[in-house]
Input
Amino acid sequence: MLSEDELALLEAIRESGSLSRAAARLGKAPSTISHAARQLEARFDALLFDRRRYRLQLTPAGQLLALEAARLMQDVSRLSKRVKQIASGWEDRLWIVTDEILEFEILAPVIRSFDALQSGVALRMTHEVLGGTWEALRDGRADLIIGATNEPPVIPKLRWLELGVMEWVFAVSPRHPLAKAAEPLERETVLRHRSVVVADSSRSSTGRAYGLLGGQATLAVPSMAAKIHAQVENLGVGWLPRHRVAGLLKRGELIEKRMADPREPNVLYVAWRGEQEGRALSWWLEQLRQPRLAKRLVRGIEITG
Output
């Protein structure tokens, strides 16, 4: 490792190309700079400065030393900051996994508020679908999950809170045969038509899909936004978040159909492991307990166009 003064010497000589100018830049006598340069060469037993030309330059060995030493100094500085960060209760990184049904746009202002804390905690945000969300927490691919559906599974030291309740509507395109079918729709009637489902991202099971009838043909899509679009485009039928498609229903781009077997609302959960409660996780949990944010996440962003 080089000291800050030695790094400054190398940088001054590299940029100025002159012993006198380097000395002036560093506020030292040229003889002092010359002596320090010779000491540095003796320490590494290598020629670091090319004195043969009019301009004083770093040799390839000197350039390598300057670049690598500067990099090491930055690494040490970052390490020092991280050690202080962890010692003060902040995590090194927080991995947040949201269920795909939630929209990232609603969380963006929360991320900005977290950044304003200048905690140094690196955020990683990814999403999963249905069983994959709980699985991410269980398998250590998440420190915090937001918007998980279904009852909390058995996970060691699991802690959770209810984010809210999501309501659903069975909707079809006005061009779909079910648009004019008599209500309430029976299972046997719906079974004859393809259902659009969001593909479960679970890695350890066959996955699941809400509102799907046994033996029904399916079109699996990657997201709720894609599912809504597919149903507007008459590619299939299925249950959609009521608040998100309210505008589409008003404009007639989708038609709500009353069902003989209504779907119960889904409780959405926030969950984490009890042994991992650093300051960053605690801050996020405090935000998610705020009714206004929780309500916005559950209701989602209404599609207006």
In short: The chain has eleven helices and twelve strands.
